[in-house]
Amino acid sequence: MFPLNSMKVGNDRDKIVLLLLLLLLLLLLMMMMNDYDDDCHDGGDFSCGGDDDDDDDDDDDESHGSNNDNADDDTGCRWCDGVYTPTSDWPKDGDIQIDSISARYDTDLDDVLRDVTIRFKPGEKVGICGRTGSGKSSLTLALFRMLDTYKGRILIDNMDISHIPLITLRSRIAIIPQDPVLFAGTIRFNLDPYDEKFEDELWEALEIAQLKPVVAELDEKLDSPVSEGGENFSVGQRQLFCLARAFLRKTRILVMDEATASIDMQTDAILQKVVATAFADKTVLTIAHRVSTIVDSDSILVLSEGRVVEYDTPEALLALEDGVFSSLVKGAKNAGN
């Protein structure tokens, strides 16, 4: 018979040994995971997010909505930890498929989009309208992943945007917001904050936005100062600067979030003309403040309480006497807009 105190010492010693073994095992697992990540990001022998079997890679590509032509990034790594880094020319077409999405601003708030299913074809010009609170702006915010889209998915060129790095996604979609945003600095900085464009490209963008004469008359030209919020330019000019900045992005998708809501009719006409020409082959989504600005669109999407209620050509919707879009147009005519 062993003394009780010796048994206690033995038990404590066993516990210490077991703890040390567990810590050693945990350390080995962490080292193995680090080695895997290094191989994944360095384009090593490991297949990102899968094994080396070609059939498994094909299945993985198909399940995430990618295709073999656009499956690899510059390092040859396709999927790493559930994140897909697209090629530099993504999206090539600007095809947008919204598949049964429901979204909200927070988990304890009501849905602002409810089971929305819609497709915007490459190069299509889509006018989005509806009464206040219908979900117009929320739909575009979902494209930028600024909402809690807890159901369904959004595909851009057949890629699920929930797998795209957020910075990459937002850099591939241009937007002209309702309230034009300019930053304290220079005109050059506001057009090309990352200094990626040649000077000729900046002047071309200004010419397209019909701002070249304005900037050319300034003493410092492109290096002329811009005050905080762009207060040294008119609202219309600030809106056109945003248009020039969007043009420089060379993206396949442009979102105009009620961009004509706070500008005069002359600037509105310039804006519409430039979008119709400079963005002729791009997918353009326009949230309408003035219904007259979208009657020439290829398609009209009408939302109500976060749901799609009408989607067709302007001609087809205007033919519906009791339709929502038809009533909005009639109301605008009566109001002189």
What is the fold named in CATH at topology level of the largest domain? Rossmann fold
Seen as an oligomer or otherwise, the chain set is single chain
Strand proportion: 15-25%
The count of strands amounts to 14
CATH homologous superfamily (4th level) name of the largest domain = P-loop containing nucleotide triphosphate hydrolases
Q: Which whole number gives the mean pLDDT?
A: 82
Helix content: 25-40%
Order of helices and strands: HHEEEEEHEEHEEHHHEHEHEEEHH
Identify the CATH architecture of the largest domain. 3-Layer(aba) Sandwich
Largest sheet: 6 strands, mixed
Structural class: alpha/beta
N/C terminus separation: 101 Å
What's a quick, concise take on this entry?
The chain has 337 residues and is of the alpha/beta class. The chain folds into 2 domains: 1-39; 123-147 and 158-334, P-loop containing nucleotide triphosphate hydrolases (Rossmann fold, 3-Layer(aba) Sandwich), CATH 3.40.50.300. It has 11 helices and 14 strands.
Verbal overview:
The model is unreliable at 4-9, 39-71 and 73-77 (pLDDT under 50). The chain has helices spanning 4-41, 54-63, 136-143, 166-171, 187-191, 199-208, 212-216, 235-249, 265-278, 314-318, 324-334; strands spanning 79-80, 83-84, 96-104, 111-120, 125-129, 148-156, 159-160, 174-176, 185-186, 225-226, 253-257, 283-287, 299-304, 307-312. The protein is built from eleven helices and 14 strands. The radius of gyration is 27 Å and the shape is globular. α6 (199-208) packs across α8 (235-249). The N and C termini lie far apart (101 Å). It has a six-stranded mixed β-sheet. The chain has a four-stranded antiparallel β-sheet with strand order 4-3-6-7, covered by helices on one side. A hairpin with a 2-residue loop joins β13 (299-304) and β14. It folds into two domains: 1-39; 123-147 and 158-334, P-loop containing nucleotide triphosphate hydrolases (Rossmann fold), CATH 3.40.50.300.
